Amino acid sequence: MTHAEPHQKQRLAFVLWGPRTAGLLVLLFLGLILEVLVASGIADPSIVAAPSEMLMSLERLFTKDNLGAAFLITLAQALSATLLAMLIGLPLGWTLFRYEVLGRAYRGWLAAMFAAPLVLLYPLFLVIIGRNYGTTITMGVITGSIPVALYTCEALHKVSPTLLKVGAAFNLTAKQTFTLIQVPAAVPDAFTGIRLGLIYALVNIIGIEFLIDFGGLGRVVSTMFFRYDIPGMYAAIFFIILISLLFLTVLKKVERWLRPV
Amino acid sequence: MTATLEVRNVSKTFESDNGDRIQALAPANLGVKQGEFLSIIGPSGCGKSTLFNIIGGMIPPDSGEVIVNGVSVSGPHKDIGMVFQEESTFPWRTVLDNVAFSLEVAGMEKKERLEKARHFVELVGLTGFEHHFPHQLSGGMRQRTAIARTLASEPRILLMDEPFGALDEQTRLLLGDKLLKICDALKQTTMLITHNITEAVQLSDRVAVMSYRPGTIMRTIDIELPRPRDSELISTDKFAAYVGQIWEDLRTEADRGMKAVGEA
């Protein structure tokens, strides 16, 4: 072993964990400041909950308000919505890629819809479908399928022409080119769309749950809000943030696995 | 000996975005014999890659024909294996799976194709890297993987478009040595497109020199250097004489090309 190796290992550990530790310390510091502000009465406890109170409320949310079950309900809805978004978005993305005229005609529209606050459509579905999981999942599917379609189309466009030439040189049929080259080459970029689709679906589902006081995590926040349980409401929001972080971390890991470079 | 590959009166004209017609290839004629290593050298923009794409069946010629073993061919042909200048390994496949690609397409059983692929991995000197992905390899190793993948399909003619173009000079020379050994071992008929005179002389039995646009074969030079060869050859007087001779032919054309680009 050379002398440089332990030093390099230390440096690598710092590069990996330094920013994470710094981020956590800043979060703890801000939490501490908030705690002091609430304890000293500078911050109004009827508007802002002390972090310690919020953390203690978490346990209550799990035992009395079924936060665990609410999480599972939201998770099931988000996964169902993402699955449906994939069933719609993947073929739609391929169609926009395959038929250039359609792509040129509708990609701009889809991109505009991607940027629009589609959550505002919820009253329409509330009237058509009713106050049930149909509405929440439909909103998740609509918002989730747009990034899936856009990124799938983009991913197929981005496949290296050289790889396609390799396929042609080996006399591949159109079907073989699609399955053996285009699809695997497009997977990493298309997955970015699926990741965004899942996140958009999750955010919208929680948002609609809150607005219509129905379902999983969003309903818990809504209940706390109407109960005027400020620490409970912040605890539920904190839990949602944790869940989002967990989702993001897992999806990023899958994405890195798919795109190792 | 009859030619394994023959290019007969092949020409090609492209239309530019502003509607100008650019004649990339004037009628070009060329033949490659069984087991021969022929390099085509020419200045930038002389239509080397156009000729490569026409021979490989990637684009059709405006006139003329490409004949493989006496049969006129159009489109990609199983007897011609192509190696591209750009990165062409499949990033989602390991070295072994990359090399086994053509065998998989041909429907060969998994065990058999992996066994055969291993042979070609060994041939290009990548034993020990079978389960590495392309991003874990150097540029030279990735290009060797691409060559092994093409060789695994057992083409009669190996057609390469500046396969070492993106590599540094030392790696290029060493890979040239490797390629010489492979071609000697397989008695592989090879056509190499290059703009590197040293590479052309080091590897070839014959070098065809192309003119600047519209590209055509100006003349071919027999490289009468002993085989087996390696890169030590480049320090000999005879090698230098061939390089000088080719450069003499190329200089005027390269100069013409530079002026044309400057005027454009």
TrEMBL record, chain A:
<feature type="transmembrane region" description="Helical">
    <location>
        <begin position="233"/>
        <end position="251"/>
    </location>
</feature>
<dbReference type="InterPro" id="IPR002229">
    <property type="entry name" value="RhesusRHD"/>
</dbReference>
<feature type="transmembrane region" description="Helical">
    <location>
        <begin position="109"/>
        <end position="129"/>
    </location>
</feature>
<feature type="transmembrane region" description="Helical">
    <location>
        <begin position="135"/>
        <end position="153"/>
    </location>
</feature>
<feature type="transmembrane region" description="Helical">
    <location>
        <begin position="67"/>
        <end position="97"/>
    </location>
</feature>
<keyword id="KW-0813">Transport</keyword>
<keyword id="KW-1133">Transmembrane helix</keyword>
<dbReference type="InterPro" id="IPR035906">
    <property type="entry name" value="MetI-like_sf"/>
</dbReference>
<feature type="transmembrane region" description="Helical">
    <location>
        <begin position="198"/>
        <end position="221"/>
    </location>
</feature>
<feature type="transmembrane region" description="Helical">
    <location>
        <begin position="21"/>
        <end position="47"/>
    </location>
</feature>
<protein>
    <submittedName>
        <fullName>ABC transporter permease subunit</fullName>
    </submittedName>
</protein>
<feature type="domain" description="ABC transmembrane type-1">
    <location>
        <begin position="71"/>
        <end position="252"/>
    </location>
</feature>
<keyword id="KW-1003">Cell membrane</keyword>
<dbReference type="InterPro" id="IPR000515">
    <property type="entry name" value="MetI-like"/>
</dbReference>
<keyword id="KW-0812">Transmembrane</keyword>
<keyword id="KW-0472">Membrane</keyword>
<dbReference type="Pfam" id="PF00528">
    <property type="entry name" value="BPD_transp_1"/>
</dbReference>
<comment type="similarity">
    <text>Belongs to the binding-protein-dependent transport system permease family.</text>
</comment>
UniProtKB/TrEMBL annotation, chain B:
<feature type="domain" description="ABC transporter">
    <location>
        <begin position="5"/>
        <end position="237"/>
    </location>
</feature>
<keyword id="KW-0813">Transport</keyword>
<keyword id="KW-0067">ATP-binding</keyword>
<dbReference type="InterPro" id="IPR050166">
    <property type="entry name" value="ABC_transporter_ATP-bind"/>
</dbReference>
<keyword id="KW-0547">Nucleotide-binding</keyword>
<dbReference type="GO" id="GO:0005524">
    <property type="term" value="F:ATP binding"/>
</dbReference>
<dbReference type="InterPro" id="IPR027417">
    <property type="entry name" value="P-loop_NTPase"/>
</dbReference>
<comment type="similarity">
    <text>Belongs to the ABC transporter superfamily.</text>
</comment>
<dbReference type="Pfam" id="PF00005">
    <property type="entry name" value="ABC_tran"/>
</dbReference>
<dbReference type="InterPro" id="IPR003593">
    <property type="entry name" value="AAA+_ATPase"/>
</dbReference>
<protein>
    <submittedName>
        <fullName>ABC transporter ATP-binding protein</fullName>
    </submittedName>
</protein>
<dbReference type="InterPro" id="IPR003439">
    <property type="entry name" value="ABC_transporter-like_ATP-bd"/>
</dbReference>
